[in-house]
C-alpha cells in the first residue's frame, strides 16, 4: 500500500519507518531539510531506540523515502498528518498552524477517494472543521490518534495496544475504515483491540488518555507532599495501593514530575478547549494536576537549599537533562528546568545526560555541561538525579563518594537504594521519602 506521512518529528519519522518495515511503500515529507537529509541517509535525527535499525532495514528495501516536496504525496492512498501541535506562546491553547499548513500542502496532490488520516493531537472539533477542506477535493478525513511513548516508539507503533479510528458517517466512513484496516493489517491480524468511532470521540480519546496519565502522576506526587509532612514513604504507599488491580502500579512513580512534548501541553490545551466549549469546570482539576507537577521541581530546589544552605558558589552535579530516560527530548523537561533554576540561584551547576546534552546546550548555553558522569561528579557538593537513566540508578555510592566534595544526594526520581547510600555515609533525600 502506498502511504505518505507529513511531519517527520518523533511521531512521523517513527510512523513512516514502521509502516515501511511492515511492508508499505512510504514517503515521509517535512519542511526541515536537515531532518530530511538525515532520514534519507538512514540516520535518526533524534535519539529513539530501534529507529536507526528500521530506517536502515526499511530503507534498504527501497520502500521508504523522505523529501521536502509535498508533491511526492501524489499516488499514495492514505496520507498521515503527524506534525506537531505545540502550546501557543502566551496561551494554554494548542497551535494548529502546522496541521493547517500540512493539509493545505496536501490538497493539490489528493485524488478523489484518498484518505487523509490525522495523527497529531488536536483540540476536539478540529477534525470536523478540517473535513470540509479535505472533502472539497473528493478525499476523506479520518482521525487516528497515536499513543506511542518516546523510548518505546517503534514497538508502540508496530505493536500498538489499541487502534482508534475516528471516521465520518456513511460511505466515506466505510471506505476510511477499509483503508485503515489495510494499513494496520498486521496489528489487526494479532487481535489488537480496535475502537471505531466519530471524530470528536477519537480526538477526546487521545487528550483524555494523556490527562488521565498526568492525573495519576500528580496524584502520587500529591501523596508525596503529604508523606513529606508526615514522615511516610510514598514509594511503599505506591507499591501497596498499586497491588489493587483497579489502581495498578504503573505511572505511580513519585518524583520531580512529568514533562515532555505531550502531557504538559495536552492538559493545558484540553483546559483551554473545555473552557471554549463551556465545560471548563469539568476539567478544572487539571489546573491542580499541572500545579502539583510544577511544585515538585521547586521542592528539589528547596531540598538543595536545606542541605547546602546558601547555593551561591556550591558545585552541584545534575544527573539527567532529558524529560525521561531513553530519550534526548528536553521539551518541558523537569530535569533541565531544575538545572537551569539552580544555576539561576547561583549554584555552580555541572549537568550531564547520556543523550540530551546537545539539545540542552542549544537551548541553555549558559549551563556547564559534562560529557561523562565522572566529570560531572568531580568535586560536587551535592548530586541530584533528575532523569532515571539506568547508569544513574546503578551508581555505586562508595565509588561516587570518593569523587565528590560533599556526600549529599537528592534522588529526584526515587530510584536509589536509600539504605545503601546512607550506609556509605551519604545524606540521602528523596521526594516523599523519609
Ligand atoms: C506520553 C504518553 O504516555 C503516550 O501514550 C502519548 O502518546 C504521548 O505522551 P511520553 O511523552 O513519551 O508519552 O512519556 P511518558 O512515558 O508518558 O512519560 C511522561 C512523563 O511522566 C515523563 O517525564 C516521566 O518521567 C513522567 N512520569 C512517568 C513520572 O513522573 N512518573 C511515572 O510514574 C511515570
Can you tell me about this structure?
- With 434 residues, the protein is α/β, with parallel strands linked by helices.
- It folds into two domains: 2-197, 3-Layer(aba) Sandwich (Rossmann fold); 198-434, NAD(P)-binding Rossmann-like Domain (Rossmann fold).
- Helices cover 45% and strands 13% of the residues.
- It is built from 18 helices and 14 strands.
- The protein has helices spanning 10-21, 33-40, 51-60, 97-106, 126-135, 153-158, 170-183, 185-189, 199-230, 234-242, 263-276, 285-308, 334-344, 357-363, 373-377, 390-393, 397-403, 418-423, and strands at residues 2-6, 25-29, 64-67, 78-81, 115-118, 140-143, 163-166, 194-197, 315-319, 348-352, 368-369, 382-385, 408-411, 427-430.
- The strands form three sheets. Strands 3-2-1-4-5-6 form a six-stranded parallel β-sheet, sandwiched between helices.
- Helix 18 links the parallel strand 13 and strand 14 (427-430).
- Helix 1 (10-21) packs across helix 3 (51-60), helix 9 packs across helix 11 and helix 9 packs parallel to helix 12.
- It is globular.
- The mean pLDDT is 97.
- Bound molecules: uridine-5'-diphosphate-xylopyranose.
- Uridine-5'-diphosphate-xylopyranose binds next to helix 9.
Amino acid at each position: 500500500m502506498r502511504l505518505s506521512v507529513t511531519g517527520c518529528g518523533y511521531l512521523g519519522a517513527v510512523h513512516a519507518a514502521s509502516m515501511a518495515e511492515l511492508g508499505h511503500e512510504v514517503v515521509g515529507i517535512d519542511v526541515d531539510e536537515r531532518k530530511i537529509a538525515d532520514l534519507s541517509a538512514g540516520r535518526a535525527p533524534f535519539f529513539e531506540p530501534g529507529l536507526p535499525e528500521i530506517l536502515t532495514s526499511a530503507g534498504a528495501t527501497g520502500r521508504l523515502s523522505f523529501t521536502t516536496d509535498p508533491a511526492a504525496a501524489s499516488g499514495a492512498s492514505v496520507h498521515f498528518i503527524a506534525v506537531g501541535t505545540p502550546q501557543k506562546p502566551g496561551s494554554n491553547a494548542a497551535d494548529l498552524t502546522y496541521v493547517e499548513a500540512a493539509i493545505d500542502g496536501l490538497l493539490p496532490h489528493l485524488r478523489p477517494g484518498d484518505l487523509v488520516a490525522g495523527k497529531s493531537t488536536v483540540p476536539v472539533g478540529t477534525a470536523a472543521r478540517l473535513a470540509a477542506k479535505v472533502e472539497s477535493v473528493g478525499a476523506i478525513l479520518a482521525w487516528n490518534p497515536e499513543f506511542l511513548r518516546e523510548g518505546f516508539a517503534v514497538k508502540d507503533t508496530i505493536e500498538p495496544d489499541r487502534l482508534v479510528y475516528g471516521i465520518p458517517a456513511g460511505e466515506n466512513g466505510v471506505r476510511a475504515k477499509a483503508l485503515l484496516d489495510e494499513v494496520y493489517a498486521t496489528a489487526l491480524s494479532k487481535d489488537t483491540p480496535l475502537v471505531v468511532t466519530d471524530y470528536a470521540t477519537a480526538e477526546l480519546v487521545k487528550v483524555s488518555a494523556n490527562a488521565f496519565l498526568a492525573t495519576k502522576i500528580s496524584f502520587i506526587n500529591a501523596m508525596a507532599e503529604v508523606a513529606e509532612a508526615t514522615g511516610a514513604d510514598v514509594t511503599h504507599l505506591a507499591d501497596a495501593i498499586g497491588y489493587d488491580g483497579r489502581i495498578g502500579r504503573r505511572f505511580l512513580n513519585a518524583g520531580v514530575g512529568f514533562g515532555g512534548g505531550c502531557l504538559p501541553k495536552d492538559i493545558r490545551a484540553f483546559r483551554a478547549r473545555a473552557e471554549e466549549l463551556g465545560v471548563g469546570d469539568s476539567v478544572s482539576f487539571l489546573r491542580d494536576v499541572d500545579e502539583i507537577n510544577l511544585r515538585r521541581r521547586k521542592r528539589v530546589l528547596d531540598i538543595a537549599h536545606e542541605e547546602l544552605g546558601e547555593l551561591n558558589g556550591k558545585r552541584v552535579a545534575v544527573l539527567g537533562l532529558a524529560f525521561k530516560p531513553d530519550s534526548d527530548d528536553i521539551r518541558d523537561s523537569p530535569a533541565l528546568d531544575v538545572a537551569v533554576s539552580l544555576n539561576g540561584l547561583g549554584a555552580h551547576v555541572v549537568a550531564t545526560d547520556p543523550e540530551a546534552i546537545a539539545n540542552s546546550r542549544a537551548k541553555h548555553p549558559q549551563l556547564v555541561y559534562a560529557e561523562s558522569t565522572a566529570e560531572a561528579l568531580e568535586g560536587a557538593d551535592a548530586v541530584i538525579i533528575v532523569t532515571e537513566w539506568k547508569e544513574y540508578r546503578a551508581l555505586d555510592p562508595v565509588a561516587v563518594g570518593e569523587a565528590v566534595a560533599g556526600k549529599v544526594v537528592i534522588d529526584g526520581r526515587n530510584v536509589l537504594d536509600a539504605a545503601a547510600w546512607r550506609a556509605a555515609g551519604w545524606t540521602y533525600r528523596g521526594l516523599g521519602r523519609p
